[in-house]
Amino acid sequence: MSDGNESARCEKLPKSCCAPSATHAVDPPVNKCSFVDGKLSTATRARMVELAGGTFLMGTDYEEGFPDDGEGPIHFVTLRPFAIDCFPVTNERFREFVQATGYRTEAEIFGWSFVFWAHIPASRRTQLVQDTVAVAPWWCKVGGAKWNSPEGPGSDLLRRNDHPVVHVSWNDAAAYARWAGQRLPTEAEWEYAARGGLAQKLYPWGDKLRPNGEHRCNIWQGDFPNHDTAEDGHAGTCPVDAFPPNDYGLYSVTGNTWEWCADWFGRDSHRSASIENPAGPLSGIARVMKGGSFLCHKSYCNRYRVAARTSNTPDSSTSHIGFRCAL
Fold it and tell me: Helices in the chain by DSSP H: which ranges?
């Protein structure tokens, strides 16, 4: 964003603990990359699941939720048939896009992105960190942080090809989807798919976070933001298939990384009694994100619930935001 009105924006956006919003002094230069809309490949289709659509209960009135995010009220939504990626877009897939098109992400154009403090090598924090977010100092503005250098200069994607790509803005995600012959899912499509056919459950597998004591997703364990015990086996992102899928065959819809949706964010999105194929407000300052991330913890942000939602400005990027595509 380039309006510079940070105080006004902070009143409308969720807390920075979930997703710090970039405030850029100038608009980015025009991306030099250009390409025509892509055609859906057989390989891409094979990574998608086709869903019949229909009517489901969207939203929540969960008492431990965040009503100011517009999570409720619960309401009926009817969707036409659609298809959605089984997995978030991985580093491997995003690399194919970049190599085919020469695309530069907005983090690369602006020259920095947000990185969680504990993932920056202690020996290089003074060198790499340009600034922190005042209300959430665990978020660091790191020069040179981008999709293929997730912690800044000196970091790489070694052993992370099957992790979700991060440091991608909504604009970057939309560009990838266009190249792949896809689009971003609407919030309603995302939630319908993530629920896996279960009605009004907290998580894709039911109401217990750890059924039978088993970890089902990649979220924070321990004392946030000081120490992640990584009891689920992961500190930071993990492979997109690290945990079992839901009953529709979707992986990693809870935790790991937030996922961009097509919709503009609005707190009154769930106010209609019954909606067919909703696509969100006609305009806004931020886009919807769903699913939570590896930084979510019950002590401050239990937005890893299926109905939970947050948002960020379309040009913002962090080390915990990714996406998946739909048709």
Answer: 6-12, 42-46, 91-101, 106-110, 125-128, 170-180, 187-195
Task: Quick: pLDDT tens for 295-319.
Answer: 999 887 899 999 999 999 999 999 9
Beta bridge partners, 302, equal none
- Residue (of 230, 219, 238) closest to 90 by Cα position: 238
Cα gap 27→15, rounded to integer Å: 24
Nearest-angstrom CA–CA distance, 296 and 192: 21
What are the two backbone dihedrals, phi and then psi, of residue 228, each rounded to the nearest 5 degrees?
-100, 115
Question: Tell me: the pLDDT tens digits for 195-241?
Answer: 999 999 999 999 999 999 999 999 999 999 999 999 999 999 999 99
Contact assessment for residue 91 and residue 119, using Cβ atoms and an 8 Å cutoff: no
Residue 72 burial (10 A CB sphere; 0-12, 13-18, 19+): middle
Half-sphere exposure of 30 (CA within 13 A, CB side): 2
Q: Is the dihedral of CA 175, 176, 180, 183 positive or negative?
A: negative
CA dihedral 20, 25, 27, 30 (to 10 degrees): -100
- Pick the range with the lowest mean pLDDT from 12-21, 131-140, 211-220: 12-21
Instruction: Report phi then psi at 92, rounded to 5.
Output: -60, -45
Name the band, by pLDDT with cuts 50, 70 and 90, for residue 161. very high
Read off the tokens for 288: 């919807």
221 token code pair: 């364990």
Give the list of residues 6+ apart from residue 284 with CB closer than 8 angstroms, or none.
Answer: 264, 265, 266
* pLDDT(6) > 70: no
C-alpha span between 2 and 195 (Å, rounded): 36
Q: How far apart are CA 314 and CA 289, in angstroms?
A: 11
Q: What is the 3-state secondary structure (H, E, C) of 197-240?
A: CCCCCCECCECCCCHHHCCCCECCCEECCCEECCCCCCCCCCCC
